[in-house]
Amino acid sequence: MMADQFVDKCTVCKSESLGRYVKSVAAIEAGETLLLEKPLLILPASGDKRCTNCFRFAQQYCGKCLISPLCLECERHSDFDCKTLSDVVSSKQQPEIQVELLKKYFATYNILKCLLLYENPETRDYFEKMLQMESHLDKRRNTAVWKDHNRAVIQPLIKSNIVKRLQLATRCNEEFLQHICGIWDVNSYEIRAPDSEGMRALYLNASMLAHNCIPNANQAIDDQYRIKIYANRDIDKDEMVTISYTNVLMGTDDRRNFLREGKYFHCVCARCEDPTELESHMSTLICNKCATNKQEGYILKIDPKTWKCSNCQHCLKTEQIENILEKVKEEVFHAQDDIRHLEYLLTKLTTLLHKNHYIIVDVKQNIANMLRTIIRNSLQRPGRQLYERKIRLCQELVVLLHIIQPGISRLKAIALYEMAIASAELYRLRFGEDEISAQELQEYLRKCEAMYRESMRLLLYEPPETPEGQLVKSIISELRDLRSDIQILDNPLPEHDDE
Ligand SMILES: C[S@@+](CC[C@H](N)C(=O)[O-])C[C@H]1O[C@@H](n2cnc3c(N)ncnc32)[C@H](O)[C@@H]1O
């Protein structure tokens, strides 16, 4: 449970607008580890009931304390938690603990886990540090999320009488419990559960990093739920160290909404403030007036209410754009899982949206994923068009990622890896059909080798026990095969003389 500190090159500062944030006090090189930290606590995602011992889905309760959720395979959980809770639950003191209420509103257990940090003298300091985290209590007061927590967690917890028996009893009023709920909503990281679904983890130090949509640091979580923060580019002395709280493949409106609704701030980073999103055009529409006149015009958001063509100055209201996007999203939804339909839609949408628009990128990602499955599961060798299409999609994604994730990027590494696999297969196929010479094949395979190497370079800083870390092993094995092919092409076997 020990919380590890940031390296000496980082320090925690405070400002009016950001609260606490992390800054570099010396130059940092791309790839340098800035923090490796164990979680303070892991909790299920909202609506899930997970085993408090192993985090698989829970089907029963601990036979001793009666309220800790467990899976069918786990019989025990933390000795301290179990003893504290069973003492409380089995005590004859009045008013009686409403165990059934706690079970019915099982999210109450998440807050109990936080309160148990205080009960345990060994973790009490961590609990107090947790309380210093930002909860945006005032911005959340009486909002839908506040009311939800009140209904499903806080009131049942208070009515169950359990908090009255804890050492924290006098502090455990609605406001205090809302503060803890807010801390989790604002500061927790989404992590992968054993079944690959999501759960949440809280880290005392990693929670202090500010957000930027083009961050200079990446986060990675290993199989023991430790978080690693590393620089994704060189960071100058006195720069703010930032990570991204959002998905980089979302458009500005969606990123800003996510940050406003979940993290309670308005992002003013370089990407959000630029209507072209640093020329990536991930939210740009095509001006059909200009297109009719065979001109190129891009419709960009120039203020919260207006979108304007960069060429003919034609304006649209934000509601009009929202209606267009709503319809497009519906069409995409109906085309799900049908690769031909998605390809058709893509052709249709490119007259309406920029080729890098986030909806187009999403459709392309869907197609690329389906192609991966088709290529992998084909009994016969898949047709070359499939490989060509896959390569093109990966190339386009890599070009886009150079703009929106310019430094060390996991997504770029994966796209390069998939591009290298498909390219090597395609060139081998073309060689097999006598379409390219041995020398050309060798040149192409060398290009694939360069892609694999670049992919590996981008994944070097990922902890080995993550899917991306494991990918490095696959790349090494692919590289070995590739090099052996290149070598054979260098020294072809002598022609077999049949006579
Ligand atoms: C995970 S916490 C970061 C630590 C927090 N500043 C503190 O003092 O505990 C997230 C909160 O930090 C602030 N924050 C982070 N990045 C920000 C940014 N780019 N602009 C404004 N506020 C930001 C917001 O208040 C946000 O809800």
UniProtKB/TrEMBL annotation:
**Domain of life, per the record?**
Eukaryota
Residue span(s) of domain SET: 8-246
**Official protein name in the record:** SET domain-containing protein SmydA-8
Gene name per UniProt: LOC101898225
Q: Which InterPro entries match?
A: SET_dom, SET_dom_sf, SET_SmydA-8
**Lineage of the organism:** Eukaryota, Metazoa, Ecdysozoa, Arthropoda, Hexapoda
Q: Which organism is it from?
A: Musca domestica (House fly)
What transmembrane ranges does the database entry give?
Answer: none
Gene3D superfamilies under this entry? 1.10.220.160, 6.10.140.2220, SET domain
